[in-house]
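Q: What does the predicted 3D structure of 2-C-methyl-D-erythritol 4-phosphate cytidylyltransferase look like?
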Amino acid sequence: METNTFLTTANDSVASGQRVFAVVVVAAGSGSRLGYGLPKAQVPVAGKELLRWALEGVKATGLASRLIVTVPAGDTALTAIAEEFGALAVTGGATRAESVVAALNAINRAPAQGGMSDSDPDAVLVHDCARCFTPVEAFHAVAQALESGEKAVIPVVPVVDTVKSVDSDEYVSGTPARSQLRAVQTPQGFDLSTLLAAYAKASQQGLAESITDDAMLAETMGIPVLCVAGSEDSFKITTRLDLALARALYEKENS
Ligand SMILES: Nc1ccn([C@@H]2O[C@H](COP(=O)(O)OP(=O)(O)OP(=O)(O)O)[C@@H](O)[C@H]2O)c(=O)n1
Ligand SMILES: C[C@](O)(CO)[C@H](O)COP(=O)(O)O
């Protein structure tokens, strides 16, 4: 079997903390921007599906007491991979946010992972399958901040482009100071009851359509969201160029 040489073993100081973590891996997207002809989570890199890379990465963290994976409706191939890792596979929704809600609602049905606490989780890490090369250190940075009492934590990297806001006619309306911008990754970590309350409020307010990440919900509730160090290895496989990068990096690494 191929190994992810970018992963290391679990950090005991995190694994032995007080929080009980559920990990949600959202993998129910179609991959329309990638245009590969398969659901994106089934696309292979170095002979291994993106979902398998992602779940090996999660396992290596030693954090997940419950593991929930969202899959496209009727996707038996992805369900089988999820189950190999002891995860509960649930059918995702029409949007990423709807998939996250489906997974959150299933946490208490997920089996406890071997060797982990069987207590009910009180924290959750929500991770994109499309960021399947995220290193253990990024998971641990998020988990550690939750262990320290934070309620919402996101991994970020600096923005390297100048970013403009535009009006509806495509004229520039502003240039935010780049030093204050961050590019946001996953896993995003939350106190579980806080994220459940945030999604319930968003649903009441009809915000679901405009949600592009989970931390936005905490922001709308006035909950401070802490940024911790992400990683350039956590890039999201969205386009053909991203897949080419992944293959260049990992097919070489594993050959
Ligand atoms: N209805 C959806 C949409 C997305 N996702 C997941 O959310 C993550 C981020 O989404 P994205 O990278 O945009 O994936 P796709 O929706 O598959 O891509 P596209 O928008 O190009 O179709 C992915 O791991 C994807 O599988 C999901 O679980 N359910
Ligand atoms: C959650 C996310 O990965 C943070 O950058 C991103 O917002 C997902 O966006 P997508 O369009 O659903 O891929």
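A (community wiki): The structure tokens above were generated from the sequence. The chain has one domain: 16-253. The radius of gyration is 18 Å.
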